């Protein structure tokens, strides 16, 4: 189940939590973040190709392409047995920004986005069916956990794809990681 946890940036333990998708969308929307729930437009096999995954959500993808003028769409997938999972995980754990929107739609699995728009941090546990669009310039980081499992559609305005500008702020170290956060929700 998707969750949104909001807390002061200096007190991760003082949290407000919701799992109501409509409330999540409202609260995130107030911070300029788009959160939606999508359903597939056609059946999708577990081993579906990138083209088949995108085709299964083509109407929703096209709506976002029209809205934000995205130039490229791809699918990224990571499993617990990936030999570079630790390297890939560490790439996203430092707070950073982008010059463009960071858009992820979770086709399967889950991941935890940490958004730092102001003096608060929004921890967004995204799962299958969740779309999250982080505005350009918003400070954030992402944790996929020690045993990552996800497949995401990514949309980019820059044809070169994911380019991060690390802030140098050690804030991510003060917050529970993906696995700790999941344990706290149990």
Task: Describe the protein's topology.
Elements: E1 3-8, E2 16-18, H1 21-30, E3 34-37, H2 50-56, H3 58-68, E4 72-78, H4 85-92, E5 96-97, E6 102-116, E7 120-127, E8 130-134, E9 139-143, E10 150-156, E11 165-166, H5 178-185
Antiparallel strand pairs: 1-2, 1-7, 3-8, 4-10, 5-11, 6-7, 6-8, 6-9, 6-10
Percentage of residues in strands: 25-35%
Structural class per helix/strand content? alpha+beta
Distance between the termini: 11 Å
CA-atom Rg in angstroms: 16 Å
Quaternary structure: single chain
**Which CATH architecture is right?**
Sandwich
Give the name of the CATH superfamily: Jelly Rolls
Biggest β-sheet: count, sense, barrel?
A: 9 strands, antiparallel
- What fold name stands as the CATH topology? Jelly Rolls
What are the low-pLDDT stretches, counting only 5+ consecutive residues below 50? none
Number of helices: 5
**Average residue pLDDT:** 94
What sequence of helices (H) and strands (E) makes up the elements? Answer: EEHEHHEHEEEEEEEH
Question: What does this 3D model show about the protein?
Answer:
This protein is an alpha+beta fold. It has one domain (3-185): Jelly Rolls (Sandwich). The chain has 5 helices and 11 strands. It has helices at 21-30, 50-56, 58-68, 85-92, 178-185, and strands spanning 3-8, 16-18, 34-37, 72-78, 96-97, 102-116, 120-127, 130-134, 139-143, 150-156, 165-166. Strands 1, 2, 3, 4, 6, 7, 8, 9 and 10 form a 9-stranded antiparallel β-sheet that branches. A hairpin with a 7-residue loop joins strand 1 (3-8) and strand 2 (16-18). The radius of gyration is 16 Å and the shape is globular. The protein starts with a strand and ends with a helix. The mean pLDDT is 94.
